[in-house]
Amino acid sequence: MLSKTRAEEIASRLTGDRKCQWFEAACKVRPWIRQSSADFADSLITAYRTRGDLSVSQWTWLIKLTSEAMSKAPSAALSDIYMNP
After folding, report:
1. Residue 12: how many other CB atoms lie within 10 Å
2. Which residues contact 8 (CB under 8 A, 6 or more apart)?
3. What single-letter DSSP state applies at residue 33?
4. What is the pLDDT of residues 55-72, one digit of tens each?
5. Cβ atoms of residues 26 and 68 within 8 Å
């Protein structure tokens, strides 16, 4: 799980392919995003689908929530998520 500071660092350097990877990962692990953040995560996913991008602040939160969910999701759910180092 990433800290907010680390998520901010990642978000500030995101480019095309990495944005797509984080977005796809967020969609796949959405069922494991904690309930209290589910609506917020959905709004970020919708914003990306609508506008094709997010602000650095929005990316920070999508990365943080996705990271948390990836730590809770079963390995089978993560098997086809590719995160380029």
Report:
1. 10
2. 56, 60
3. S
4. 999 999 999 999 999 999
5. no
- State the pLDDT at residue 84: 57
Q: Is 19 helix (H, G, I), strand (E, B) or coil?
A: helix
Q: What is the biggest distance separating any 2 CA atoms in the chain, rounded to whole angstroms?
A: 31
User: Which tokens hold the place of 30?
Assistant: 């959405």
Please report the DSSP string for 42-78 in residue order.
Answer: HHHHHHHHHHS---HHHHHHHHHHHHHHHHHS-HHHH
pLDDT 10s digits, 2-56: 888 999 999 999 999 999 999 999 999 999 999 999 999 999 999 999 999 999 9
